[in-house]
Each structure stands twice: as structure tokens, then as C-alpha cells.
Amino acid sequence: MKLNQTLNYNIIQLLTVIGISTQCLSAAVLTFGSTQSTSTPTPYVEQGFVINATTLATGILDAANSVFSSHYFSFLASPTAEATIQAFTLGNFNLTSMDIGIGELASTSSTDITLVGSFAAGGIISATFNGVTAVQNIVLNWNDLTKVTITGSADPGFDNIEVSAVPETSSALLVGLGAMSILSRRNRRK
Fold first, then answer.
1. Pair 71, 81: CB distance under 8 Å
2. What is the largest CA-CA distance in the chain?
3. Which of 22, 136, 158, 167 lies at 20 to 30 Å from 38 by C-alpha?
4. What residues have CB less than 8 Å from 187, skipping those under 6 apart?
5. Cα–Cα dist 6/13, whole Å
6. φ, ψ for residue 157, nearest 5 deg
7. Which residue range is the domain that position 83 belongs to?
8. Cα separation, 72 vs 2, whole angstroms
């Protein structure tokens, strides 16, 4: 009887750990829900992710005068301007896809947008999209990143950023140890 109670308790603990880990693994889509313009670089935080722009003119703009269909994040491009996406509290992350386009403040009809991802293990990956005039959904499937840097030639905009947290090694280790504990107890019982 005591063995069954211990086994049930361990299963509940394991399911709790697995539940926490799967919450961290769930995908989030950053959609920039409301308008927020600023003349100073202000971090934007949504669902555990932070977006920073180094330029003075940045914000979440209403799509009314742009190629986007909803609110989107944009920054005024300059040779040194960039925006970064990072996991605020979750550590490393995966970037699955995002919408890119030209913002309403651009002085030209197209923009060149470059994304550079920094891997947690070191190294980078990049993608450049030239002559962007309309909204494009780009699928990247970049995994285990610490940050993504976005630059553009003329007021780049982005929206619907699909990201997911990478589970910490310790969480994965706890799940594995819990599963091994349950299996070893079952084998002893037989």
C-alpha cells in the first residue's frame, strides 16, 4: 500500500514538472496589441520577451496608414539603428516566423531588412530581405538563440513574431530523472 502511495506521489511530482516544462515550451506570438509611440528608446515587453530599439523614433504603430493589417512594431532607420528581440525571463528561445514590411514613416517605397540571430552556443545566422514593399511572412525556424537583431534601410516594421522558450537544461534533467525513478520503482515491484 505504501509503495502505491509513493508511486502515485512521484507520478504527481513528475506531471507537475512536465507541466511546467511544457508551459515553457509553448509558442507565443508577439502581436503588439496597442499603439505606443515614443521619442526615446523604450523596451517593449510581451509574453516574456523584450524588444529594444536603439533609435529615438520607435513604437507600436496603428496599421491604418501602412501595409500591415494590425498594430506593428517599427523604428526609424539610420546607419546605427537596430531593434533586438530577447527572452526577458525565459533564457534562450526559438524564432519560428514573423511578418516583415515597410513602416508608414519610410521616406522610400521599399526597405531592405536584415535579421541576425545569435546562437547560445556561439556563432550567428542571418537573413536579408531586399526591396520589401508589402508584408511578408518569413519562416526562419532558428533555434536556441540568445537574441535576434533587426536592421533596415528605411523604417522597417515587424509583427506576429512566433517565438518559443528553450527549456533550461535543469528542467529537462528533472523530467528525465523523474521518469527514470518511476520506471525503476515499477521494475522493482515486478
1. no
2. 75
3. 136
4. none
5. 10
6. -130, 155
7. 27-167
8. 57
* CA distances in angstroms from 124 to 54, 89, 117, 118, 145, listed in the order given: 20, 22, 5, 5, 9
Overall domain count for the chain: 1
Q: What is the CATH number of the domain that holds 163?
A: 2.60.120.1350
pLDDT per residue as tens, the chain (190 positions): 444 444 444 444 444 444 443 444 468 899 887 666 655 567 888 888 988 888 766 667 776 667 887 888 888 777 778 899 999 775 899 999 999 999 887 888 899 999 999 999 999 999 999 999 999 999 999 999 999 999 999 889 999 999 998 876 655 556 666 766 776 666 666 6
Residue 78 lies in a domain: yes
* C-alpha angle 29-31-33 in degrees, rounded to nearest 5: 140
User: Does residue 53 fall inside a structural domain?
Assistant: yes
Residue 12 lies in a domain: no
Residue 16 lies in a domain: no
Give the global pTM: 0.73
